[in-house]
Design brief:
The chain is built from four helices and nine strands, in the order αβαββαβββαβββ. It is an alpha+beta fold. The protein has a five-stranded mixed β-sheet.
Length: 170
């Protein structure tokens, strides 16, 4: 992959949930670039510790409606979206205000924002923390418990995307 500054990164990301199964045989289109970007952002962790998450969204690979996972993972962390494959890559996140302290207690801070020793909120690498999901995303789909869309707000526009991964924790 080539990043926004033209630097080549020889990295391999093994997909295990079947989000974009044909990626191994053809190039990603814009739609799938955004899904892969959201997936990578949702798995990023400030501390690098392993935390089991429930990734939810509109594709069948992320549809948890009617599954035990929907009731096992009840704490909404937030949502992730963006595109790492464009000349100016970007990633966004939002958080659920009610669960920010809980999320931080599990050492998952990329939606909530990492707290510095002085108490200031710091972004998680290039993930731009937008704020509360209630302000940036369409209301949760109550059947599958995911945000159907969130606002990109890259240049002050209100353009939104439906390629959003919503994360829940135990």
């Amino acid at each position: 992959m080539i990043d926004g500054s033209g630097k080549v990164h020889n990295e391999v990301y093994w997909g295990i949930i079947g989000l974009v199964p044909d990626w191994s045989t053809k190039a990603l289109d814009l739609y799938n670039q955004q899904w892969i970007s959201a997936c990578l952002a949702s798995r990023t962790n400030w501390y690098g510790v392993s935390v089991t998450i429930s990734s939810r969204g509109t594709p069948s690979a992320l549809d948890k409606a009617g599954t035990p996972e929907l009731t096992a993972y009840t704490r909404l962390e937030g949502a992730f979206w963006g595109n790492l494959f464009v000349p100016s890559p970007y990633l966004n996140a939002c958080y659920d205000e009610a669960n920010r302290s809980y999320v931080r207690s599990l050492m998952r801070e990329c939606a909530a924002g990492h707290l510095t020793s002085g108490g200031a909120v710091q972004q998680c690498g290039m993930i731009s923390i937008r704020g509360s999901c209630a302000s940036y995303c369409e209301a949760l789909n109550t059947n599958g418990m995911y945000y159907p869309s969130c606002v990109n707000n890259l240049t002050g526009s209100q353009e939104s995307t439906s390629r959003v991964i919503t994360v829940f924790l135990r």
